[in-house]
Design brief:
The chain has eleven helices and 13 strands. By secondary structure, the protein is of the alpha/beta class. It has a six-stranded mixed sheet with strand order 10-9-8-13-11-12, sandwiched between helices. Strands 2-1-6-7 form a four-stranded parallel sheet, sandwiched between helices. It has a three-stranded antiparallel sheet with strand order 4-3-5, with helices on one face. β9 and β10 form a beta hairpin. It is globular.
Length: 295
């Protein structure tokens, strides 16, 4: 194993056990419910079920990323131990984390000139971010050095496909993605928006689908259309959900039946930072495929 640190924020929405098992370091984000601040520590301080229950009951949510000083404190022990660092940030279109980490890098490079520090804007979020970080751990374990790994990440990160659908539009109205009238009519007509993360790392609506079953079918059609190899796709799939485990399991069953060569399917919650904006009722699927500027 190469002697460097792979790092991400908790917004990669991997489980605590996954981070530890794959030897991936992480820095916590923060969320606020009705004026009380909590650490986004992968559901250990507040369970994901409790978090989404509070949101469903009307709690107002906000989020914040670690600042530059916190990044300096986080990176310093690695550098002092003689280790290089590659840190992937949540998409810069969704958070200021990338800039905070970049400023920390600039300060620390003066103090530790012999160390390499790479800060990469993942252009990803939630399980898509997690799937990207997990791939870096695979490549590290295969012996890739940190400079080649950073280059590989920049060249391949847009091949990570993100598709989200929601069954409750009020959180998208609250976040300004939909007008109140559009949200009211959408809920009335049972419209389930299907969103994706584009090449700029922005979460944007792509399709309007009527009915929960139909949006699942459309999502799976997109996997077949966009995934590397189509039905012959032979890599990992991540599914994340916000109190929608039955939908996540349904997607998992269908993927196993249709995509016989999938190597692994991982189901996790959408974490508290991302979930504070999407709300309960959201399901997301992530896979490797066509570059996002092509779809």
């Amino acid at each position: 194993m190469k002697d460097y640190i792979i790092s991400a924020g908790t917004t990669a929405d991997l489980s605590y056990e996954h981070f530890k098992r794959r030897n991936i370091s992480y820095i916590d984000f923060y969320f606020n419910l009705d004026g009380v601040e909590y650490i986004d520590d992968l559901g250990r301080t507040m369970s994901f079920s409790d978090f989404y229950k509070k949101m469903a009951e009307g709690a107002m949510s906000r989020t914040s990323q670690p600042n530059t000083e916190q990044f300096i404190a986080y990176f310093t022990p690695f550098l002092e131990a003689g280790k290089d660092v590659i840190h992937l940030s949540l998409s810069s279109a969704l958070s200021g984390e990338f800039n905070s980490a970049r400023l920390a890098k600039e300060e620390l490079e003066e103090k530790y000139p012999d160390r390499k520090i790479f800060i990469i804007d993942s252009k990803a979020a939630s399980g898509g971010f997690g799937l990207l970080v997990d791939k870096l751990a695979d490549l590290r374990d295969e012996g890739m050095d940190i400079t080649k790994l950073a280059a590989w990440t920049e060249q391949n990160k847009l091949r990570l496909n993100h598709w989200f659908y929601t069954t409750d539009l009020k959180y998208f109205v609250r976040g300004g993605r939909l007008t109140k009238l559009s949200g009211f009519m959408g809920n009335l007509l049972n419209i389930n928006p299907l969103l994706h993360v584009n090449e700029l790392g922005e979460l944007i609506p792509k399709y309007k689908v009527v009915g929960q079953r139909r949006v699942q079918i459309k999502t799976l059609d997109l996997v077949r259309e966009l995934a590397d190899g189509g039905l012959e796709y032979a890599d990992k799939v991540y599914i994340n959900h916000a109190e929608m485990l039955s939908d996540a399991l349904s997607l998992e069953r269908t993927i196993k039946n249709r995509f016989k060569n999938v190597t692994e399917i991982v189901i996790n919650y959408i974490g508290t930072t991302i979930g504070a904006h999407t709300g309960p009722g959201t399901v997301a699927i992530f896979f490797w495929g066509k570059a996002r500027d092509e779809n």
